[in-house]
Amino acid sequence: MYQPDIETMPLDQLRELQRTRLRQTLERVYQRVPFYRKVMDQRGLKPQDIQSVEDLPKLPFTRKEDLRDHYPYGLFAEPADRIARIHASSGTTGKPTVVGYTRRDLDIFDEVVARSLVCAGARPGMKLHNAYGYGLFTGGLGMHGGASRLGMAVIPVSGGMTERQLTILEDFRPEVICCTPSYAQTLSEALQSRGIDPADLPVQYAILGAEPWTDAIRQQVEAGLHVQATNIYGLSEIIGPGVSQEAVDERGTGSYIWEDHFYPEVVDRDSGEPLPHGEEGVLVFTTLTKEAMPLLRYWTNDICRIQYDPNGSRTHIKMSPILGRADDMLIIRGVNLFHTQVEEVIEQMDYLTPNYQLIVTRRGSLDQVEVRVEVAAGANPESTELRDRLQQKIKDTIGLSMDIMLEQPGQIPRSQGGKLARVVDQRS
Ligand code: ADP
């Protein structure tokens, strides 16, 4: 563990720490961010009315639109000369939002990423092949800073140029790699087609995030790269990667949210009401230590569940994998659909790979989804039996009839280094 005293802190102490930090944050934003002062004044709230994290539901949510309305620096709580770095979201869902960091914020960013790296299996002295994009996106520089802090050697490859990535994996011999899960798929396939046996490479751990993924991809990547693959989650508005991390020995049980810095809630996506632990809803974060851009109850739009794990190695709460973004949810003939649900069905089927795409069209007044999915090498894409079985399984599991198009390996677009769009919406 990187910080055992914090990572295993008893819950009552953690609550006390959160309470102290929350009260400091509230004082700061009330004094320094006109937007928050107004929001609180309108509700007749003073910072002292929020005594602990349990009082947070008294406050409204902060949403991406609020960041856009105050573009670029309107929500900053620090003057320009105290800002040490500026990043932006990837802009996956529209105009990017701008975020700032003080030196201390960057220090905490390094700390939570270092903590996450150790949780994923990395150790000082190892080399990190960092295939997250460098630039405004927080992935590349975020992982870089944390790995340096931990005492790793960073290989700042950035995303893309797959051939070069393979050469680096072979020649520079990193023990750890980080990238998006879809790019890890690309890399594992490229290794195979080059005839490289992944068992000959020293890479042992893959840290994958920035987009939703399921066990189907984990299995493909673990076999294809000969690694143990864990999930890292984060978003620029809260800090970047390292908001939460799955532990390598607890794979499949959720990712620890570093709640000494980021306090999570899960709320109903329609009413906004807080949900009990274990129920699925929108993840909301309050930053507890951010200086440059503290956010209260930030509506991430990401759908998941949170729950404590009494058998976990750490005390912090765990989040389930993200099902998808609330605004990426398809509503098909009255049924809610995320692409990860189809991915989960594919995982349960032999002869199929998690290389797939959903094509959404409108026939007359009815929306229709076609699942294009590649068969495994050697399997027959003409097999009506396989096609019918997938169709039936999707119908039984998700409750929707979808058209199925089985494809030869290599027909579905691959990630070229970043996040991959799994859904093609042709309705408009
Ligand atoms: P953008 O929202 O423009 O993509 P970011 O680059 O900050 O901006 O990405 C943050 C978003 O990426 C998260 O809100 C979430 O939707 C997604 N994301 C990040 N990590 C994961 C992960 N491990 N699993 C699923 N989704 C993730």
**What is the percentage of strand-forming residues?**
15-25%
Helix coverage percent: 25-40%
Uncertain stretches of 5 or more adjacent residues: none
Second CATH tier, the architecture of the largest domain: 3-Layer(aba) Sandwich
Description of the molecule:
This protein has 428 residues and is α/β, with parallel strands linked by helices. 30% of the residues lie in helices and 24% in strands. The protein has eleven helices and 21 strands. The strands form five sheets. The protein has a nine-stranded mixed beta sheet. A four-stranded antiparallel beta sheet has the order 10-11-12-15. A four-stranded mixed beta sheet has the order 20-19-18-21. The model has no long low-confidence stretch (mean pLDDT 97). It binds adenosine-5'-diphosphate (ADP). The site of adenosine-5'-diphosphate has 20 residues, from strand 7 and strand 12. Residues 89-93, 137, 209-212, 231-236, 300, 302, 322, 325 line the site of adenosine-5'-diphosphate.
Topology of helices and strands:
Blueprint: H1 4-7, H2 11-32, H3 34-42, H4 64-69, E1 85-88, E2 98-101, H5 103-120, E3 127-130, H6 138-150, E4 153-155, H7 162-171, E5 176-179, H8 181-193, E6 205-209, H9 215-225, E7 228-235, E8 240-246, E9 255-257, E10 262-267, E11 281-287, E12 298-304, E13 306-307, E14 318-319, E15 324-325, E16 330-332, E17 335-337, H10 339-347, E18 352-363, E19 366-375, H11 384-398, E20 403-407, E21 423-425
Parallel strand pairs: 3-4, 3-5, 5-6, 6-7, 18-21, 19-20
Antiparallel strand pairs: 1-2, 7-8, 8-9, 9-14, 10-11, 11-12, 12-15, 13-14, 16-17, 18-19
